[in-house]
Amino acid sequence: MPAVDNILFSRRRAERFAQLLDEANGGRRHHVRSRVDDQLAPLVAVGQRLSAERPSVEVDPEFRTGLRAMLLATAEREGLGTPAASTAADPDGKRTTGSTRGSLVPAVTARRARARGAILVGIAAGAVAVSGISAASENAVPGDALYGMKRSTERAQLALASSDISRGQLFLDFARTRLGEAAELRGDQVGFSAVLDDMDADTRQGVRLLTTTAVQRSDAAGLDAVNTFVTGQRRAVSDLLDGAGRADRERTRRSLTLLDAVRERSDALRAAIGCGLPAPVASDTLGPAPASCPADR
Description:
- By secondary structure, the protein is mainly alpha-helical.
- Helices cover 67% and strands 3% of the residues.
- Strands 1-2 form a two-stranded antiparallel sheet. Strands 3-4 form a two-stranded antiparallel sheet.
- Strand 1 and strand 2 (95-96) form a beta hairpin.
């Protein structure tokens, strides 16, 4: 929706959007036409429906809380709902406003407030719509119409993650999700192999982030998360071998080999941290590659 985003978040167009919303809801008609009116018409219709109808999807409570916080922060930043500056007497006895720019025309102030409100309506409409579509796409597999939305939602989660540990754990969660998709695609040699390729890529990304953080902090907590993942994931990947054809079995074994390598790396890093080795210089797709601890004498 890049074109829609550009329409909504241009200040002048947002102000025109606010005017059109006013008119659509019975407000004063401005008797003007703009060249963007036809483009804004679908957004005006969405704004009307948001007022008249409740969304048909159940919005996750955590999403609702996060959305509310985002809208309140936007409203505060944009000055929405802030009362006009109070007037005070200057030393000469004249009444002045609290603004150094002089008094504003009330109509302009109101129009800008409505424009800011229109932007918030647009954010809310888009967020609620995306939330509903994301929920519907949870069980999508490659080839389904909503699979692209499912992967886009995952990228959004990564973008919002607050640390490398959070991102690493998300990648491992995505690897588990890819495993579930692979189970649905058994017998489809091309689709099955492609999903396992994505699963292994997510595994490497997550492990690299967690092992790197563990070494940087000399803290094995990230390695605990890696080992827990490997234990459950290896068991579930092994289940794919049951009743699988030759090609699917060979591809599945490559994923099992990767998980074994991850566990070996995690154990080596744990030992290196335990014996106080300096942070490894060498690195590969699984993160830092440690030297062996010196033998006890």
